[in-house]
Amino acid sequence: MAALRGFVLLPLAVFLVMGTAFLVAGFFSLFRIRTVMKHDGTKTDKLEKLMIRIGVFSVLYVVPALVVLACLFYEQAYFDHWMNAWSREMCANRLYAIPCAPGPAETRKPEFEVFMIKYLMALIVGITSSFWIWSGKTIGSWREFCLRLRGRRSEAYV
């Protein structure tokens, strides 16, 4: 369990906190830039669109990452109880020659739903990351690259 804490939980928590801090600092900077641009009379439509896109992406990334972290904390907190319950179950079965340890019987078992939520949220983090990457410009760039590989040229962007 120390390995789970040291090599999984701690880095995930530290990186999530650091990333959120940088995200908040970036938003403050973007808001400051936006107010300066508005005072100068410059249009801020593209900047506001970018800020909305960053905000939506960050929510779609941070919330599932927090859920994964919470599920891992749940897994770490109850792992010993689950192992004791499994050991009791195995020693009660006479098919195995496992001696039963003295003490109260543990009946706590892992919740299947928590593990499925953990895996779903881990996949959702990747899916939301792909929404940021696969925009219309990215698809156009890949189309241009594939056409150049096949020897065809498309019209140049000017």
From TrEMBL:
Keyword field: Developmental protein, Membrane, Receptor, Transmembrane, Transmembrane helix
Protein family: Belongs to the G-protein coupled receptor Fz/Smo family.
Source species: Megalurothrips usitatus (bean blossom thrips)
Compartments it resides in: Membrane
A UniProt-annotated Pfam family: Frizzled
Gene Ontology terms: biological process: canonical Wnt signaling pathway; non-canonical Wnt signaling pathway
Gene Ontology cellular component annotations, sorted alphabetically: plasma membrane
Transmembrane feature ranges: 6-31, 52-74, 116-134
Protein name, UniProt field: G-protein coupled receptors family 2 profile 2 domain-containing protein
Coiled coil regions, renumbered to chain: none
PANTHER family, sorted: FRIZZLED
